[in-house]
Amino acid sequence: MKSLWSPSEAKKFKGDVGKRVYTSRLLGQNPELVLHGGGNTSVKTTEKDFFGDKVDVLHVKGSGWDLETIEAEGFAPVRMDALLKMAELDTLSDPEMVKQQRAAMLEPNAPNPSIEAILHAVIPQKFVDHTHANAVVALTNHKNGRKAVEDVYGDRIAVIPYVMPGFDLAKAVKKALDKVDPFALDGLILMNHGIFTMHDDAKTSYELMIQLVTEAEIYLSTRLGKTFSFPKAKAKEDLPGLSEIRKQVSDLRGVPVIASLDQSPEAVGYAAREDVAKISTRGPLTPDHTIRTKRVPVVIGKDSEKAITKYAADYAKYFDKYNDGETMLAPDPRWAVWQDRGVISFGATEREAGVIRDIATNTWKTIQQAEGAFEGGWKALPAGKLFEIEYWELEQAKLKKGGSAPAHQGKIAIVTGSAAGIGFACAESLAEQGAKVIGIDLSPDIEEQMAKIGGIGIVANLTDDKKVVESVERVVREFGGIDILVSNAGIFTAGAYLENLEQQNWDKSMAVNLTSHQKLLKYTIPFLKNGIDPAIVLVGSRNVNAPGAGAASYSCAKAGLTQLCRVASLELAPFGVRCNIIHPDAVFDTKLWTPENLQRSAERYNMTVEEYKTRNLLKTEIKSKDVGNMVAAMASPLFGKTTGAQVPVDGGNDRVI
Known about the structure:
By secondary structure, this protein is an alpha/beta fold.
């Protein structure tokens, strides 16, 4: 491990808190040290309070901040005298500790101080750094962990047996430091938890962390030998199986989840190990991870339903054994080892799935190192100790913040023809309501357009079977399934009376406006059957119910699409998949309608442009966003009891009515 300290960069950060920000970010940049909110840092300063009196203050990482991106305001300023007085108490409940720490803050709008603020206070050095370094955890998590730690570090560190984080851990550290000269130490090793380094100089404290972790890495490497490497294998792909797993996990959790499948050679190699079921279920790297990942993953073999059902039953037994009045969380796994296929991470949002994937990756890599380096292999904390963290009221409180989820959070939506106009509006509305949207369009603009809404754009010709299959499989491979399909791709062919209609005009309209939708349904239906509250919305036209002369190729294709919707609703209802069609009309804020086109059309009816745009019964303008919002609603539980329906968005058309 190498120091990332840069003298030129460090100069940009002024004062003690500035240096604290800089070195905290250096730690946060390395996933081998901390992951997603893990670890914490602090600095002790002397400042003036509101009345101008000098007070000793601990600036400690605030709750909810990530070391990689932390700013000065991410540190909570807490009076040192209050923290040190708390450290002298015999007992202190977690809620009272949080309350008193907040009461001792100089800045009332700052975030809550870290639960380890008292621990930081009892360490006398100015700068204190804490991480959950993989190499150090590997060093401690086996039956001879303490001896290994002493072999590596000798008396340069103090070893703290595992204690629940918070007040109890602070007391244990204080007791250990009272017996030695703390300024003679380079750091502390918390068994099964992590490492602290400390110094009066920011750079030295940071580089002590790098040095001590490097020593652990060298020790592991020596024990593993030069021939050690992570096993690799090629995945056996099973996309229908992946969508079934996602469905089963979503049902257990009670919300749609994104299933992120890691099929890297190393992940598949791990999943292909003969002993993977044994080593994966011994426990996490550090207790903190149980808040996000639960104690163990589910190991899935040939029968995913059986494995996941058993996992839920075992979780209920685990809860019953250790609970003391808590309410059981949903019994769903947060990650899975899918034998011979890879590692799956589940999250209610794409971000959560990504966080869990990072933790899972570091976990299975570190487990294999410990297995290879130490007799008896990987050994985590007992289940009872991990339960205390998983159901710790302070940590649970963090996860309960945020209110109700958006209507489509966790859902996977494909929207075709979404580079502009109605298609983009549909994609945007779904994304605003929490869906992960994948747009497919022939236009290269689709990639940039989808990036605007946090989606993914795929350039593909939807009349090409191969491209359709590739696009659908990519979506399932990356996110685990499909819940919503908005089939919008279409063209408006040139008007012509039947006797003058060119065959190419008719054929092209049928290929794009009807057959491409049939192809898309064919290849997405197997995955939609495993979707969460699955819904299909086809985009038709007012021309279906009120065609105009000279529009045969377009009107007939859209009429065929409407009939396709009706048949699909009949076929898919037994599987809980809804299929409805929307008929927009007079949507003038698209590329098709230039100001010149609008002006010509308005003049043809002896109207102003504004009169022409509101030429409906409600005298209202129909915009792409109106159609997009209706499509998002039709894909939601609001239309959960509706299938086979035709819904107009036209302000009321007298010919249709």
